[in-house]
Amino acid sequence: MADMFSPLANRFGLGPLIDWTLNRNAARARIAASEAEARGDLAAFDGVVLKALRETESALDDYAAGIEQQQRLERARADASRVASRTAELRRGGRIAELPALEAERDLVVAEQAAAEGRAALNDDQLALFLALGGGWTVDQPPARDGL
Questions:
Q1: What total of structural domains would you count in the chain?
Q2: Whole-number Å distance between alpha carbons of 99 and 92
Q3: Which helix (H) or strand (E) holds 112?
Q4: In this structure, are residues 145 and 82 in contact, taking their beta carbons and an 8 Å threshold?
Q5: Host domain of residue 92
Q6: I need a labelling partner for 106 at 20 to 30 A (CA). Which of 46, 67, 132, 134 fits?
Q7: Which residues does 118 contact at the CB level (< 8 Å), separation at least 6?
Q8: What pLDDT was estimated at residue 140?
């Protein structure tokens, strides 16, 4: 083993020289294809991000409009409540007939129903905004337990 590095041992090579003659055009084509695929993936990612931003902006706009609508509905309900209350007082005092009092009560019920529907729509807008902002993702949710 000691004579392995002696001048006589160095005369022999380890084997023929290996000459790799690769087809460089094919390698360059594979590199170019990989780069094109990466650019395509990046463009697809950008598209997903833009879509998410559009959805978020739309959800924010809908939510803001829903809040304004709900405020108007609550004001209308409060106004109808005041009118119904005053009309009931006038009816009890005998100053107006029954029909205007019933109409005021009907208007109050309609306003309360509209306000309730507005709250439901606002809740839907909140959920849409939550989902647009990336909510709803669950990670390692525990399995449902039978019998509970």
A1: 1
A2: 13
A3: helix 98-132
A4: no
A5: 41-133
A6: 67
A7: 66, 69, 70, 73, 74
A8: 59
